[in-house]
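Pipeline run #58 for the internal structure catalog. This entry was flagged by the ingest filter as a single-chain record with no existing model, so it goes straight to prediction. Upstream metadata was stripped on purpose; only the residue string is passed forward. Reviewer on rotation: M.T. Logging verbosity set to normal.
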Amino acid sequence: MRYRSRWKEMKSISIYAITRNQNIEQLQKLERQLSGRDYFLKMREWELESMKALTAELESCMEDVYALRFFYSFQIPRLGKEFDLLQIKEDQIVNIELKSGVVSDEAIRRQLLQNRYYLSVLGRTIHSYTYISSQNRLVRLTNHDHIAEADWDELCRALKRESPDYDGNIEELFRAELYLISPLREPERFLQKEYFLTAQQRDIERQILKGIRAKHSDYYWFSGLPGTGKTLLLYDLAMKLSVRQRVCMIHCGESGEDWRILHKRLRRIDFLSDRQLSLQAAKQTMTENVCAEEAFDTFLKPYSAILVDEAHLLSVEQLKILEECKKQIPIIFSSDTEDMISPEELDREISQRLASLPDVQSFHMTNRIRTNAELSSFIQNMLDLSRRKGQKGYPNIEVVYANDDIEAVCLMQGYARRGYLYQNPAMRDVNRLVAVLDEQYYYDEDGYLRAGKISEASYEITRITMSEGRKSNVRLLFHQLNQAKEKLAIVIKDNPSVYDTILDIL
């Protein structure tokens, strides 16, 4: 994968212009000038030669090749998905992938299918081609998802179509969050396999599956900030591991209702909550008069692998149950990174125990997809003032003040009328979210947001946004705020100090 920094606004370029006789250094300068990138694209000799050969073939069947404009070597931000050549018009897209050496038809097919999936969000007719310069071979992806020999005249007719070229910012067309589906919130799309993993997800999955095949047992643990696609990766792993054998998926937290559809459709994946895990082990221990590890061994006997979603929410007792498994089966943990939360607000024992598991293979996911970058920046800056990062502005964040419970409820109701949902532990991936910060919150001397004991007078308003019987705290707030996808509103109640600090962040 090529390294790519951000550009102000990438422009389409003339492949005729960049295939005229010139050296690589000159070409890189020209490409940067024409495309508007703020860095030099690393261009390869074979790629240049393939593009020259493609241009020569196009010149043999059409006159105005010089007028053709393509987005060259474009990557969808945060996904790492790259396209060689994209001609984008108002009503259609022509995608041409360049190859120099011989490539199997199946490999070509897989790439073009994946490309078509990413391009389909634009709702335009898609023409998908691959050109292999060493063979002077042009192939296309048919409507029936097959690879067929392509006709140059057909390609030229598509390229010459009388329709205006797209002249805007290509990044505005391809928003990364459109491609990361949630198996829990969008089970039908997941079951229909309407998704592709990012390059980082694929790499982690490849290493885990390789390790399982080699050893047939081990611990695996991947972590990352909310929105990096951990749940999707875990579910894709479960699908692959359950092709021939049964696996167990353990959900932590409040997601039980969300996976009901998957539970019905996926016959070789059994879904359990962390609470069910504890209850079942305790039940077997009491009824069979056996030790915990024996109960666990019996309980998980049918499974070839165990996968744990949101492992950061496990209790120490629940993790101990998993650690006591004596069966030679792999256990895969997925958890959120919580580095920006004050250590005093966290129970570090879970992460420390995961890190110290025997021969555990750990992976850190960094590419945030689902979460809006603006919202993510604000949440991290709000939780840890010492690590504040620059942000030009927060147009999708509102912070307002309430003097008491009555004013807070009124403000929250106003946001509700605008489509905002109250923060709730069971919610996942909501477009607009409103949260309350009451007088229990404060900033400590290190700049961390902290939460003290909540007063009885404040409990009622807090209860509106929290599950019954649970008191607000920074850790829970962090995970809830990160469910917002587009807009975030915070009502600060009777806390002028925190209000003033957050206004400064904005």
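catalog note: DSSP finds 18 helices and 18 strands in the chain.
catalog note: The first strand starts at residue 71 and ends at 75.
status: ready for reviewer M.T.
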